[in-house]
Design a protein that fits this description.
This protein is α+β, with helices and mostly antiparallel strands. The chain has three helices and four strands, in the order αββαββα. 22% of the residues lie in helices and 27% in strands. A hairpin with a 4-residue loop joins β1 and β2. The chain binds zinc ion (ZN).
């Protein structure tokens, strides 16, 4: 019997892993900066690609980088606060 992740919709798979995708999420860039971004899965990416990484602008280091979503429980309180205060889009 072959076990595959294929039948799981990506959003469900991500939720099972503990990620809160589908809105405001905290991500970490390759240089370790954390910030908030809007992560709407399933638009252009497919499969686990969207869970693993995305290439986008990091407003903390002011550079482009691969970013990955992080679980809030994996962050310290200080990191969570920092991430909420830094967003790649201006907050109205
Ligand atoms: Zn960065």
């Amino acid at each position: 019997m072959v076990i595959t992740m294929e039948p799981l919709p990506p959003l469900v798979a991500a939720r099972l892993l503990g990620y809160k995708l589908g809105g405001n999420v905290i991500v970490r860039c390759r240089q370790g900066h954390v910030y908030s971004t809007i992560w709407i899965p399933g638009v252009k990416l497919k499969g686990l690609d969207l869970v693993v990484a995305r290439f986008q602008y990091c407003p903390v280091g002011k550079h482009w980088s691969l970013v990955v979503p992080v679980r809030e429980k994996d962050l310290t309180e200080g990191e969570r606060q920092f991430a909420r205060q830094h967003h790649d889009l201006p907050i109205p």
